[in-house]
Design brief:
The chain contains ten helices and 16 strands.
Length: 378
């Protein structure tokens, strides 16, 4: 399509559309080239025909937008991630509708780990060797935090997600919000400073940041921040980036949350669930109290009945004992012996126990069961 200009007197003026088409046509004449850089901001979606990413020069931060047909990208099976260094083969083009300059990639080759990624791998191995990522040093989160620290940027999304989640789950929660840098060269130092101040006022700290590019999240892999999180006197929850992002601070934190919303679910209990459990516990206590009252009531009634019957039982037992004693006395009584035909002989009021105790002609007194009579010894 020929690019035409509109004449205004002696001036030729191109519309934006015509200008972009002209530049795009001119760029198409340029030869294909190889470009080296680190992959960042990789974006792919099942519904998109192209895969988009940015190539970054690690020496000075220069960036180049790149697009590649999805079929060609998937066919290479490179499994690229942010930080990978590649050689991209393609030609420059201008997306005329938006005036965006980019490289239309025709092929990709992995060149090696990017400088940042390689440095992170070295730092990760070093800190792991010191035990900073060990599961043994991770602490359990408090069940009832009196104060919750929230370290976040002025990014409304991440802060709103955490605060909304906490408010929805546990309205009485007390949250101390500390806004600070979460991107750029000053972010790591600023977060370390805020972390130290919040640890003196809270029981648990949440570090939250929304998604971003590989470079945006680099402060959260800074060695100073990782060590500060590991040394923090209170438990730390990190919710940085998206679920697939894993900065080094996640490995040092006591708990890693996949998103800021997930961090809110971790840091406070569910108020509605707690209320239900309390209601169930209250109902259980009521049932237990009623059962205990019924048991003690039955025991009291049984004790009352025993006390009511105790005097008559005691009298009955005493009567039986008395009758038993009377029976024994009757059995042992001399009169019982006399009733069986025996007699008691007395001489001068002394019982005669031997024939030698009396003399012939001596008067004696004989007692039988129904009376007494006198006799004389022969």
């Amino acid at each position: 399509m020929k690019v035409e200009a509109t004449a205004y007197g002696d001036r030729k003026v191109f519309s934006v559309s015509a200008f972009n088409r002209g530049v795009s046509t001119w760029l198409q004449r340029l030869p294909t080239v190889w470009v080296e850089g680190e992959v960042t901001e990789l974006k792919r979606h099942p519904g998109w025909q192209n895969v988009f990413f940015t190539l970054k020069d690690p020496t000075d931060g220069s960036c180049l937008s790149v697009s590649m047909p999805r079929g060609q990208f998937d066919g290479l099976r490179l499994e690229l991630a942010d930080g990978d260094r590649v050689h991209a083969y393609g030609r420059p083009e201008l997306y005329a509708a938006r005036g965006e300059f980019r490289l239309r990639a025709l092929s990709l080759e992995r060149f090696g780990l990017g400088d940042h990624l390689a440095a992170l791998e070295r730092l990760k191995a070093k800190l792991a060797g010191e035990g900073l990522f060990s599961a043994d040093r991770k602490r359990a989160l408090p069940v009832w935090p009196r104060a919750i620290g929230l370290v976040t940027g002025n990014d409304a999304a991440a802060k709103r997600d955490v605060l909304t989640g906490i408010q929805a789950r546990f309205p009485p929660a007390h949250v101390v919000v500390a806004e600070t840098y979460v991107q750029g060269p000053r972010a790591a130092t600023a977060i370390v400073d805020v972390l130290g101040r919040l640890s003196e006022r809270t029981d648990v700290i949440v570090i939250a940041r929304g998604g971003g590019s590989f470079e945006d999240l680099l402060p959260f892999s800074d060695e100073r921040l990782v060590r500060a999180i590991a040394a923090c006197p209170v438990p730390v929850i990190t919710a940085v980036g998206h679920e697939q992002d894993t900065p080094l601070c996640d490995l040092a934190a006591d708990v890693r949350a996949s998103t800021p919303t997930a961090a809110a679910r971790l840091v406070v209990p569910d108020f509605a669930e707690l209320k239900d459990r309390l209601d169930q516990a209250r109902a259980g206590l009521g049932r237990g109290a009623r059962r205990s009252l019924d048991v003690h009531g039955r025991r009291l009634a049984q004790a009352h009945e025993r006390l009511r019957r105790a005097p008559s039982l005691l009298v009955e037992r005493r009567r039986a004992a008395l009758e038993h004693a009377a029976g024994r006395l009757r059995t042992l009584s001399p009169r019982a012996t006399l009733q069986r035909g025996y007699a008691i002989v007395r001489a001068e009021e002394a019982i005669v126990r031997s024939a030698d105790a009396v003399e012939p002609g001596q008067r004696i007194d004989v007692e039988v069961s129904d009376g007494r009579f006198g006799a004389r010894v022969e």
